[in-house]
């Protein structure tokens, strides 16, 4: 029977999306470079191996598309997949994009446009993931080891969103092809939040004192590179913090409420759900 191919199916959003879809009685195929043999419908999928595209799409009429991560130029890999998906008769394709366009990454805009040109193509432009405050993300590792957030974003705010709300939004579009959909949704939490505000909420709710260490963009780029990120991606990610500091990324939307029927989780709710992360 037709179903949903979930690329990045073992990741922060994909894993939750698969569970939501299956709970709703929708077949969900988990696509990953290292699929778990115990999963009822796993498939190997690797952006760098186009021979995996066809078998992953076989029999699927919907796709959740997670582009290659840590890349400033994902389009050369995604474009052949989009052509293959169209030939396979995919009727709805939902891509998880970003509300923030990385500097020196012009193909991201073109990639979104190509997805929207697909039959049933939708782009979810998600803001910063609250899950970045959980290990093994470098931000969370630093909080856990040193009790500090190192940032070049100053007091700039971002519409942080819980990956569970992103997954629920995607599920609303993928579970039923009859659901009307726009081609673009900005997916955020309920309000903007700065890193100092995040530190205050974690401290107040868990008792774990978290401070903010203000650093330069260059220092942040060096830290990203030291964590193993490719140089171009590390530099672009650090440059994003300049935009946050200058207020260019302080935007929120009602898309989660519109798609799921309930408001997105607040950061305080997120911290309450994951208090063990900072109290261990």
Distance between the termini: 45 Å
The overall pLDDT, averaged over residues, is 96
Radius of gyration in whole Å, from Cα?
A: 19 Å
The overall strand count is 9
Low-confidence stretches: none
Strand content: 5-15%
InterPro entries: Ergot_Alk_Oxidoreductase (IPR051604), NAD(P)-bd_dom (IPR016040), NAD(P)-bd_dom_sf (IPR036291)
Domain NAD(P)-binding: 8-176
Organism: Streptomyces anthocyanicus
Protein name: NAD(P)H-binding protein
Describe this entry's structure for a reader.
It comes from Streptomyces anthocyanicus. Residues 8-176 form the NAD(P)-binding domain. This is NAD(P)H-binding protein. With 280 residues, the protein is of the alpha/beta class. 41% of the residues lie in helices and 15% in strands. The protein is built from 12 helices and 9 strands. It has helices at 12-23, 53-57, 75-87, 107-117, 138-146, 163-174, 195-206, 217-226, 231-245, 255-260, 267-273, 276-279, and strands at 4-7, 28-32, 42-44, 62-65, 92-98, 121-126, 148-151, 184-187, 211-214. The strands form 2 sheets. The protein has a 7-stranded parallel β-sheet, with helices on both faces. Strands 7-9 form a two-stranded parallel ribbon. Strand 1 (4-7), helix 1 (12-23) and strand 2 (28-32) form a beta-alpha-beta unit. Helix 7 (195-206) packs across helix 11 (267-273) and helix 8 runs antiparallel to helix 9 (231-245). The protein is globular, with a radius of gyration of 19 Å. The termini are far apart. The mean pLDDT is 96.
């Amino acid at each position: 029977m037709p179903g949903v191919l979930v690329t990045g199916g073992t990741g922060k959003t994909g894993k939750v999306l698969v569970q939501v879809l299956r709970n709703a009685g929708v077949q969900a195929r988990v696509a990953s470079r290292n699929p778990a043999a115990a999963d009822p419908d796993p498939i190997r999928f690797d952006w760098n191996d186009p021979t995996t595209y066809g078998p992953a799409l076989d029999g699927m009429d919907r796709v959740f598309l997670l582009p290659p991560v840590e890349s400033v130029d994902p389009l050369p890999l995604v474009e052949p997949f989009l052509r293959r998906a169209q030939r396979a008769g995919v009727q709805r394709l939902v891509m998880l994009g970003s509300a923030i366009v990385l500097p020196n990454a012009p193909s991201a805009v073109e990639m979104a446009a190509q997805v929207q040109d697909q039959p049933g193509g939708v782009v979810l432009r998600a803001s910063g993931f609250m899950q970045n405050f959980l290990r093994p993300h470098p931000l969370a590792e630093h909080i856990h080891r040193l009790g500090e957030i190192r940032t070049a974003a100053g007091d700039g705010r971002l519409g942080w969103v819980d990956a569970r709300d992103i997954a629920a939004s995607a599920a609303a579009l993928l579970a039923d092809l009859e659901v009307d959909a726009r081609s673009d949704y900005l997916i955020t939490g309920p309000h903007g939040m700065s890193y100092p505000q995040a530190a205050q909420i974690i401290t107040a709710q868990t008792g774990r004192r978290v401070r903010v260490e203000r650093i330069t963009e260059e220092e942040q780029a060096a830290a990203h590179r030291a964590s193993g990120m490719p140089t171009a991606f590390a530099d672009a990610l650090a440059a994003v913090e300049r935009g946050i500091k200058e207020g260019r990324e302080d935007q929120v939307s009602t898309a989660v409420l519109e798609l799921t029927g309930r408001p997105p989780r607040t950061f305080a709710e997120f911290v309450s759900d994951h208090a063990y992360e900072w109290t261990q």
